[in-house]
Design goal:
- Helix content is 45%, strand content 15%.
- It contains 31 helices and 21 strands.
- The strands form four sheets. Strands 9, 10, 11, 12, 13, 14, 15 and 16 form an eight-stranded mixed beta sheet that branches. A six-stranded parallel beta sheet has the order 3-2-6-7-1-8, sandwiched between helices. Strands 20-19-18-17-21 form a five-stranded antiparallel beta sheet, with no helix packed on it.
- Helix 8 packs antiparallel against helix 9 and helix 18 crosses helix 19.
- The N and C termini lie far apart (77 Å).
- The structure holds adenosine-5'-triphosphate and magnesium ion (MG).
- The site of adenosine-5'-triphosphate has 18 residues, from helix 3.
């Protein structure tokens, strides 16, 4: 065993080793990012098994995600073999489900209880609020749900909430909470927060049950302790037990970093880590100071940003990996330019052989920012995977909206037509649909044709008949816009209005539905940009609806996306999702005030501090190369909005940064990119938002300033003469007569594959 211990301790520094070997008293390992906290936790488990004769069944380890749990289990198994299997390594929630399935009867529940996710919870609260006659404007279900969740995270039960309510809101919340809880029990269900709260209740109310678990789990280990809430804190205490009882307390080891606490909105409190020594008076604390993940430049930047947060304990984190590359900064004209920059840079890095795609990650603040990256990556054939969050064009609402457009463009598209026939609900039930379908089949006519031949469709009740007639009439009205060749963005807007799709989402209390509205607005933005592409003079205009659909279906074509599990893909995710992970190359995007930090943090010091911790988490994911980018203009709700630089960017010492591109006013004339299309023109290459010109063209063209009369040569259009120059700065355009290729108006932002002669 000594040799094995040697093996397990060899590649640890003295502080890490102490943490692995420590025995007896509660242990807290606090340290900055990348200092080996998770490594210590994993190693400690292996060490317990290999060196301290601990049985795997005596170990309970808590991680923040299921994926992290699986990885930890695998690592331990690598070190000590298959017997690692009987350990409990899981998230708090999975662990509690396990306990509750076993012990449900003790609490008077049946063990096949269902678990309500946040969606179900919201729905049930809506019903309860309605039954209690609450004004949904004054008490939206979403707000009620947050309050109830907060109460549960604080382990406040319905009686206490009722007794302690001091104002109208609190009384209402307590009332809803009480009825909601009764309904949950009646349906033999637990919501997410109940899982923790009920487990705590179980352990506190039934000493023999608590004793059973305390006897069994002699080691409790918790990763990411800074993101535990009060209920989870209490759960750990109950599991560990207290000194002086019949069973000595279990050995507790928690690791964390107060600077990486980013889940306050779920009730997480750094109090748990900051006051660990008060909670466990005989605790030992070990600090780790060497970072093994990142180069010094990256660390210095991270330290500089986080040091602006008030009330924190300063840490001195260092790395001996050398200064490394400077952090690359890039100011894009807009989000498309930013995505193009990221794609171009990935291309360069991979071409040079320095890294492969799977060593690269792209981060953003919120899920809906993934769309622009996905589009350009798909277009360039750059394999990627989005972690968490459904891909934009696969989202239900986006698919619904596109199904309407497809049906309008081609009424014979039965799949699309049937998808939206009763979406939003308009009283055309499955039975009615089946009648129409059977009739169409018998008569050998299309489904759409059958809808117009209602009088002859048998078995239809009058209500369905009316509903279908209304639907057909609405589609005819929309169809007129298509016949007139209205702009696709206008048609899409009309679809969202006339169908009631948007209104239905707006009326919903479910925050997911609000995200859906954002996604639909995003789709309108896409359509608007497509519409505003300028055609060369004299070019035959293609009706925008079919062109748009063809363009979008190329993007949505799942075949162009590699298998999610396959290696060699770039990873896209939010910074929240990236917690605990590391990548050789990180692109962190959208560093704009109002985006990151998020809008709602701008006027709120506590939220701003949380956003700054998020920045710290983002920066410290990078091992060798870090890119920070922002866009001068970003479309939001179909409107471009000018965003100032993120205040966090200014907090990074500027000598660590290598600005590849700064704001135009500081760099002279804007480097330029076309909005345009390739002269060879298929719809596929006609950039919805931004085209992918030939590779040679869009890697580094020189910046230029144009005047009327200048002669130019363009990679695709050939020789031309500038006939007009309009706008300034971001909106600068040049109209150029390319002779045989027609007259083209180009936007002079980004880089144009064009040379002034
Ligand atoms: P975070 O705060 O982001 O969760 P962490 O403190 O958990 O980070 P780890 O992920 O455990 O840090 O370690 C960061 C990286 O450093 C990992 O690649 C790990 O393998 C490596 N590492 C940690 N300790 C050592 C060591 N003593 N020698 C070599 N590499 C180490
Ligand atoms: Mg970690």
């Amino acid at each position: 065993p000594v040799s094995r211990a040697g093996h397990l301790l060899d590649d640890l520094n003295p502080a890490q080793r102490r943490a692995v070997e420590h025995s007896g008293t509660p242990l807290l390992v606090v340290a900055g990012a990348g200092s080996g906290k998770t490594r210590v936790l994993t190693r400690r488990i292996a060490y317990l098994l290999a060196e301290r004769d601990v049985h795997p069944g005596q170990i309970m380890a808590i991680t923040f995600t299921n994926k992290a749990a699986a990885e930890m289990k695998e690592r331990v198994a690598d070190m000590v073999g298959a017997r690692a299997r009987s350990m409990w390594v899981s998230t708090f929630h999975s662990m509690c489900v396990r306990v509750m399935r076993r012990e449900a009867k003790t609490l008077g529940m049946s063990s096949n209880f269902s678990i309500y996710d946040s969606d179900d919870t919201r729905r049930l609260i809506t019903l309860v609020a309605r039954d209690l006659d609450l004004d949904p404007k004054k008490y939206p279900a979403r707000t009620l749900a947050i309050h109830i969740s907060n109460l549960k995270n604080e382990l406040i039960d319905t009686e206490t909430a009722t007794a302690d309510a001091t104002n109208d809101l609190e009384r209402r919340v307590a009332e809803v909470y009480t009825v909601y809880q009764r309904r949950l029990t009646e349906s033999n269900s637990l919501d997410f927060d109940d899982l923790i709260m009920k487990t705590v209740e179980l352990l506190q109310t039934f000493p023999d049950v608590a004793e059973h678990y305390r006897r069994r789990f002699r080691h409790v280990l918790v990763d990411e302790y800074q993101d535990t809430n009060h209920a989870q804190y209490t759960l750990v205490r109950e599991l560990v037990g207290v000194a002086g009882g019949e069973i000595p307390p279990a050995e507790l080891c928690v690791v964390g970093d107060a600077d990486q606490s980013i889940y306050a909105f779920r009730g997480a409190t750094i109090r748990n880590i900051v006051e660990f020594e008060r909670d466990y008076p005989d605790a030992t604390t070990i600090l780790l100071e060497q970072n093994y993940r990142s180069t010094q430049n990256i660390l210095t930047a991270a330290n500089a940003v986080i040091s602006r947060n008030p009330n924190r304990r300063d840490k001195s984190l260092w790395s001996d990996l050398g200064e490394g590359e400077k952090i690359v900064g890039y100011v894009a004209d807009n989000e498309h330019d930013e995505a193009a920059f990221v794609a171009r840079e990935i291309d360069n890095l991979v071409d040079s052989g320095e890294v492969n795609n799977s060593e690269i990650a792209v981060f953003y603040r919120t899920n809906n920012q993934s769309r622009v990256f996905e589009e350009i990556f798909i277009r360039l054939g750059l394999p990627y995977r989005v972690v968490g969050g459904v891909r934009f064009y696969e989202r239900r609402e986006v698919r619904d909206a596109l199904a309407y457009l497809r049906t309008l463009a081609n009424p014979e598209d039965t799949v699309s037509l049937r998808r939206i026939l009763n979406v939003p609900k308009r009283g055309i039930g499955e039975r009615a649909e089946a009648c129409v379908s059977a009739y169409a089949e018998r008569e050998r006519i299309s489904f759409a044709a059958a809808l117009r031949d209602l009088d002859r469709v048998p078995m239809l009740n009058p209500r369905s008949r009316n509903a279908i007639a209304g639907f057909v009439e609405m589609m005819d009205e929309l169809g007129e816009m298509v016949a007139r060749e209205d702009d696709v963005a206008d048609i899409l807007e009309a679809v969202l209005e006339k169908t009631g799709y948007r209104t239905e989402l707006e009326a919903s209390e479910d925050p997911q539905d609000h995200t859906r509205i954002e996604n639909l607005n995003e789709l309108v933005t896409v359509a608007r940009e497509f519409t505003e592409l300028e055609l060369p003079e004299g070019a035959e205009p293609v009706p925008s609806l079919p062109a748009f659909l063809e363009r979008v279906s190329l993007v949505a074509d799942a075949d162009s996306i590699p298998d999610a599990e396959s290696d060699g893909v770039v990873t896209l995710m939010t910074i929240h999702t990236a917690k605990g992970l590391e990548y050789p190359v990180v692109f962190s995007t959208g560093w704009e005030d109002g985006v990151f930090p998020h809008m709602r943090a701008l006027g709120d010091p506590a939220e701003l501090a949380e956003e700054r911790r998020l920045a710290y988490v983002g920066i410290t994911r990078a091992q060798r190369r870090l890119y920070l980018s922002r866009a001068l203009v970003r479309s939001a709700w179909g409107q471009p909005s000018a965003n100032p630089a993120s205040r966090f960017l200014g907090e990074i010492p500027q000598d660590l940064l290598d600005w590849r591109r700064v704001e135009p006013s500081r760099s002279g004339p804007a480097a330029a990119t076309t909005w345009g299309r390739s002269a060879s023109g298929g719809i596929a290459s006609r950039g919805l938002s931004r085209p992918a010109p030939s590779k040679a063209g869009w890697k580094d063209a020189p910046a230029m300033k144009l005047e009327v009369g200048d002669r130019v040569t363009h990679d695709k259009y050939g020789l031309g003469r500038v006939v007009a120059v309009d706008g300034a700065g971001l909106r600068a355009t040049a109209t150029i007569d390319f002779g045989g290729s027609g007259t083209v108006r180009l936007m002079l932002i980004g880089s144009v594959p064009m040379t002034k002669l």
